[in-house]
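Worked example 2:
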Amino acid sequence: MSTITDLRSFISRLEDAGQLVRIQRQVDLEYELADIAAALERRRQPAPLFEEVRGSDWPVFASAVANQTRAALALGCERGEVVEVMGHALEPANGIPPVRIEDASATAAAAWKANVVTGDEVDVRRLPIPTHAAGDGGPFITGGVVISKDPVTGRGNLSYNRMQVKGARQFGFNLNEWRHVREFLDVQEARDEPLEVAVAIGLDPAVMIAAGARYDDDELLIAGAIRGQGIPVAPGVTVDIDIPADAEIVIEGFLGAHERQAEGPLAEFHGYFGDLWESPVLHVTAVCWRDKPIFQTLIPGWNEHLYLGNVLPREPLLLKHVRHVARNVAGLHIPPYASGFTAIVAIDKLNPGEPKNVALAAFTAHVNIKWCIVVDPDVDIYDPADVMWALTTRVDWSRDVFYVPGAQGHEMDPTADGRGVHTKIGVDATSKVERRGYEDRVRYSAVDLSQFLPGV
């Protein structure tokens, strides 16, 4: 099995595993590209590589880490090992620092320095940036990893910040109050100075996954832990920032001090369109790219958005909490189809009260979790149909459901108030043989249909 070092090697891995489809018909960047990608995700089809994009010579890739199978391929593990591998990578003691390439001016050292445009020659509108959904405010970079540096300590930081095209050399740069980048900008604005940033597009998925985590050190250490070696980095052309050397495209620039502009809306993780925000402005100083680059996008408000921001970084946290109260927990999943608000836990229960304890532990592990469904190990927690079967056949709604009213949730949860306060729900969907004798499930063996139906 080949080693994943960049986006291209990951695409090869996906293709070998039957998880890539090449779209050779020309597609439009406005709505059509995202519509196709979303439809493929909805039907559990492979990730699309759009090879013919109207108005651009560059292909566009989407849905890199949009389900458990592709997450496992990205992490180099089995599907059921994803949470454990992520838990290992997120432990600070396991972090592996990036490796700085000294001869970084050479193209061979940083592939994205093969082509460099700076100053007045820059026009980001030439990039194949999609307008994803009909309610979006325009074209947005959604799959770019923002690289910044703490102006006080010098530590690096990775994050996702949506970026709306505002002109040839400007983006609206969405920035929540709780992000580390906001802390860095606050320091610079107190000095009346701009904050330098870089945006890397088209990356090793280990870097993409790391960027979705909330981490008190450089998230590149997480990517290093995933790969078992330091991620190669090279200094920027116009910014004093170390950037992953194998990126496809790099945008460099700075956030202006005390500068705000209306930005948005964009499809959000909860499945609704967000508001207009008064956001900082990114002024672009350079655009750099590899020869024959691949642009990468993330379909906002859809599976990959949830996997990178909610599923992969939070499942290890929840698993640690629920195993603290019940060591016999067999698995845990935060399904993207529930907007990151639901946890499904499989447990080989030893006590009839354990499912309730497990649900309470999930609620306290992270404020986002509003619904916890506890099932037996015979239920596939990654299959919504199997979970629904357990809810239908193993739950007495008068006895197996409990509520936690007035609990803190996420402020953007559409069912919560402005402070995120709402009612959380726990469901014991485990088998209760003591109530009735049903225990053995109907099972059929897997069949290779290609042996019987040509073309399947």
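The CA atoms of residues 400 and 428 lie 5 Å apart. The chain has a mean pLDDT of 91.
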